[in-house]
Amino acid sequence: MSTRIFRAEQAVYLPEDAETGTRPVLGPVTVVIDGEIIVSVTPGLTSDIHAGHDAEIIDVPADQVLIPGLVDTHVHVNEPGRTEWEGFSSVTRAAASGGVTTLLDMPLNSIPSTVTVAALDEKQAVAKEKVKVNVGFWGGAVPENLGTGDLKALWDRGVFGFKCFLLHSGVDEFAPLSTEQLHQAMTEIAEFDGLLIVHAEDGDIIDEATAHVDAAGGVDETFDSFLASRPSASEAKAIATVIAAAEETGCRAHILHLSDSGSIDQIAAAQERGVRITAETCPHYLSLFSEEIQNGATQYKCCPPIRTAGNRERLWKGLVDGVIGTVVSDHSPCTAELKRFAEVAEAQASAHENNELTAFAALAAKGNDLGAGGADHRGSGGSFGTAWGGIGAVELGLPVVWSQARLRGLGITDVVRWMCQNPAEWAGLTDRGAIQVGRRADLAQVSADDAFVVLPENLNQRNKVTAYAQRALAGVVTRSYIGGETVYVRPATPQTPAAAGEPGDLAVFPADVRPFTLRPSSDAQ
Question: What does pLDDT average to over the chain?
């Protein structure tokens, strides 16, 4: 049926004739969808608006809020090449279950990295029969593809911009840019008004800090030792470098996963001068804090690191003030082995096995409790020096941020602005991210006042390692829609996800695969 009508007593929507950047409002609304597009948004619950329409009527339960689908612009899928970490089939199911209807895939840690058109072709060939939500792609800017024409070729193929690092990325195949190469990349990208997104940590400062930590015994199972090796000064210096280059070249630039609240002022000052610079932060920086992280609990390791509780509050202020524009997941999972859980190695050695199922079983070992700190708070026994850095949370971002926002007197309209509307508009996807006439009917239903406990075995991400295990979160996503069509239905009772294609999977994720999302106005559109 091509016409659907949603009636919701609570919905977050944009008023009629609202312009870009307008804040959404909360109230009762009737939404008419023709095909995949919203054609009418009428405040209030209208009983006769469907007169003359052969329409399907969806009445949203009174205790649920209808919101636009989340647009998560920072997701590491890792397929092909490291599919054991995360793949398109699992990540798009995880996204749908978290109300995310559009995600943009980072150029690493897949093999090959998305730094050439050939690599993009390879990634899309693998993904095309697996994606359950809208998926777009970032390209990468590395020393090897500067000045080769690869950046413009990727841009013409519909990538949303280019990611670079200013220090070692963690994988050898995605090399960092020097300061000179950063200027070169920005100059090249500015010629076609592209976008450079930057992992902004300074390698020299981190090398110096790491040397001091090594002299005191090295980064070990204590989080403080890891935090000392990645000081906030490394972010501050790298961000200053990015601002200077953007100001000189006129290139659009974006600071990824801002952790250092001390850098908010220099970003704000640059924005006021007209520098084309934006910034994002992530759910883990807005919810977690270093003082609570137990020894060996490497499920909390990410780069840049989670910092203090005071730093967290200052990030919230930067978000409320509008200096930080978006909140995105930086979903970057890995296997339990790469988190260096001591129990994993012991379990595999005793079983004479080396596979991910053994690793998952080890997460239930005493003192670890499926990847959390454990009920006894002893952590996992992992080393922060050798564990992979990254937090998997694409399906938990909305409840994590909403749980924290409501504690600070903020509303669901604020969360929608930071996680739906702003990231869509920033990425150029002005056809989604809000409930408004002319936009896509990508939606989610959220029981905002209900809560759930994060049980890792019920997560849809491939590996069940999470920094949020056993935490109670507010905001239960009950359904997700793309183009008005149901793509996710929350099970009546919590359950371990069924294998892709099985009856249980089809009941939860009933829709077909989706076409890729390309940057608007690209040659590939």
Answer: 91
